[in-house]
Design a protein that fits this description.
Pathway: Cofactor biosynthesis; tetrahydrofolate biosynthesis; 7,8-dihydrofolate from 2-amino-4-hydroxy-6-hydroxymethyl-7,8-dihydropteridine diphosphate and 4-aminobenzoate: step 1/2. Helix 1 crosses helix 2, helix 2 packs parallel to helix 3 and helix 4 packs across helix 5. The protein has one domain: Alpha-Beta Barrel (TIM Barrel). The longest helix is centred in the middle third of the chain and has 19 residues. With 282 residues, the chain is an alpha/beta fold.
Length: 282
Amino acid sequence: MKKEIRRYAWKDGKTLTIGEKTLIMGILNYTPDSFSDGGKWNRIDDALRHMEEMVADGADIIDIGAESTRPGHQAITAEEEIERLRGILPKLAAACPVPISVDTYKAETAAYAVDMGAHIINDIWGLQYEAEPGQMAAVAAAKDVPVVAMHNQNGTEYTDIIGDMKAFFACTAELAAEAGLAQSKLIFDPGIGFGKTFAQNIYVMKHLRELTALPYPMLLGTSRKRFIGEVLDLPAEERMEGTGAACVVGVLAGCAIMRVHDVKPIARMCRMADALCEDDSR
């Protein structure tokens, strides 16, 4: 499968190339209640040290989130989210040698984060958060930044899950175009664990090639997800092996970015999978 090469560059000198190798997005949960590591990194010094460890271990992007989106999470306001980010984000932007994405579905938070040094918006509602119609697309267009647009929905009813996901992504692309955000700034995410049952998550994983065939890079976020725990009967913190297997499946299916907690082992697995996928004719 021939991959599109995308190159992004920002005013602060940071760059990112998608398509030459599988990229690793390291998760930095700056929250007290994330499902597997809540509270471990929600102090500034601890968060900065963890960022440095993840970059040293092979992270190409650091993804910071100030609101947990685990099942049953307690939603917070944009003001509360921004207040959590206020102390850490400027310091993170100054210290981090790789691009930073902000994990938020609120347009106000995204605008603040980009102004404070974030480079990418990671939106779990794929520019389609019902409470803020059109707002995230407008922010992304105004700031001219890439967006990771994840598939999500309320409930788990589908007519044809892959077909419905493609329709969702087509809607996201249309919203981006209407806002003036270049299609080259869109990265899609199948949203494993969001709006999907165990069986649906497995089905999507088995049919990833139908999604990576779309003309957009695909990010895969399977790290420590519940479906892995159900397969392996393990608690979240022990699901690394299953995460690695899912990531290798993702690489072989053409996914461009892996969003993970356990950077070092997953980065190594992805490098091996990349080597096995290399075109021998080059």
